[in-house]
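Troubleshooting: if your tokenizer reports a length mismatch, compare your output against this known-good record of 94 residues.
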Amino acid sequence: MQTFYLGVASFLLLTMIIGLARVFLGPRQEDRLVAVQLFGTTGVAVLLLLAAALDAPAMRNTAMVFVVLAVLAVMAFVRGSRKNDGRGGGGAGG
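Known-good structure output:
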């Protein structure tokens, strides 16, 4: 089973490398954000697979930290894009 986990982790790393093109070539900021979210999600999946394959519980904790950081990155992007649109970011109504 360890070989299977490592093989799937390698495949996911390959998809991350392919997704790197979208970060640099994405025509809009939204495309780049989706690519960065792909990195976050795939990175967490790779860490969880490696934690299972290598029996390393510390990698599971690292994956949880990456999940929180990914959520904060999306929040920062949305807040920054709202300020750039001129709508501001103050309050529940916008």
